[in-house]
Amino acid sequence: MMxxxxxxxxxxxxxxxxxxxxxxxxxxxxxxxxxxxxKHSNPTSYHSNVEWWRKxxxxxxxxxxxxxxxxxxxxxxxxxxxERVRVQGVGKPLALGAVITELRASKALIPLADFLGAKExxxxxxxxxxxxxxxxxxxxxxxxxxxxxxxxxxxxxxGGSSRSNKDTSWWGEYVFVSLLERAAGExxxxxxxxxxxxxxxxxxxxxxxxxxGSVLGAEGSxxxxxxxxxxxxLERDKKAVLFDKEVIKFLADDLSAPREINGxxxxxxxxxxxxxxxHAQVDELQxxxxxxxxxxxxxxxxxxxxxxxxxxxxxxxxxxxLSKRLGSLDNLESTLLRVEAAAGDIEIMKSxxxxxxxxxxxxxxxxxQKESIEATLDALAEVNADAKEVDEAVRIGAEVAVGVSDVIxxxxxxxxLRALVLEAEQEKQEKAELDQLAEAMATQATLEGAGEVPxxxxxxxxxxxxxxxxxx
Length: 472
Known about the structure:
Helices cover 60% and strands 6% of the residues. By secondary structure, it is mainly alpha-helical. Among the domains are: 14-175, no CATH class; 263-370; 425-462. The longest helix has 59 residues, at 305-363.
């Protein structure tokens, strides 16, 4: 194990990059050692180490810190890469061979030649076995047997390492898929923000490199190799562009729009190139005129009248040429505008044609024929009539049922009402008699208090019969 801090690597900036900056010295030593045996003995640690290296290599490639510092999409794995990430006190990364092999198997890295030559998308499930088979062909026999599982990491007889330190089978150029997907996403997002006319979707190869140079975080334009890889991905895997090495055309979202590069596209691109060249000439002429003015002023300050006049005459000639170029530029820009409008009209008309054909095909369906429509509507009318009859029958039946239940004998109602009235009068009479009895009892209590007690007190029963109450 290491102790203390790691001395400055070569190059000095490598330890400042993630994930190096957050990795301890002891952890870094383990990562730089040969990790191939861990795949079976400690798979969790093995895959964790591979993931650390994936992030590290991604940063190295995207930062332009490879040996040549050019590509930001393609990893160049060889002895120069090992020297590039070599750390003093730790040494060279012996784990790179196993890491590259594992990243290839997971499609995080794809050999550049396979990527550019493949006809199928890299997302096609059937593409991976073919790629692995192509990679195995021509490799050492022991390596092929190991990949097929015939031998293990310990070799045929279980002794020694199956991958020596001098093994270079993993060297090569690899497309970094995560970086490629990120760059393609930024290109499509930026393109979506443009106006969207026919001309805005056309680029030359150099124009594409200049327009989207910043998507990889580099100043200037894309390298030719990165632009080729990016365009291949956008064309084959994203189905977003058409590319014929001269014209790049971003496809419209409308699926009915023409998906081809035609003569109008080439003409628009040529006109745009001519307009751009004229703009450059105008800027250059303006710059030369300014220089002539400055030189003439300097000559006058030095009392060199003849020299000043010479510069002014040249300026006059440049002004005449500038006027001609501006006239040509105005004509070309007007022409370009009309051509783009006409090309847009062509696309619109083709969309109309496609829509017409689609509508005609739909209207040609047997269900939409006149006879079929009439028959369907007649059947629908019959069904509605039947439903209406059923509804009326149900409603009438309900009314009949309600009517039967509502027949009431008026005589019974009158008898019930008279009974209720008599009951109410009887209750009233009983209440009055009870009040009279209570009053008599109260009078008796008063007389008893005065010593005068009558023999009896009149009372009544609930049936109206008067009774004598004997006082004791």
